[in-house]
Amino acid sequence: MELIEKSEFISRDPRLANLHNRGALMYHLRGVAENVELEKRGFLSEIRKHDDAVNVLFVMTKEGLMYLVEPYDTQINLDRYDFSDRSYYKDVIKEKENNYIRNIHWS
Description:
Strand order of the largest sheet: 1-2
Order of helices and strands: HHEEHH
Shape: globular
Radius of gyration: 13 Å
Strand content: 5-15%
Largest sheet: 2 strands, antiparallel
Number of strands: 2
Number of domains: 1
């Protein structure tokens, strides 16, 4: 499966459809805590485990706030929490897309 097809497949997975713990967003954690949304984290972790081409996967709110990042270490080391000013966020909102692929690096 190509990266674009895989991205579309992942974005349509029902486990990612609802952000049930939006009230648990914490600025200092740059999203929800590591023990929140375990089903989503597990799903994204499995994708990373089985595909060496995927390093980081994340879920954002419709407002551009980071919800969760897998791996979690990447999430807590982000330098920001609000990504609503970023061009990729604006492109997703403008195009009403579920996913966006950017910064693909091949080695």
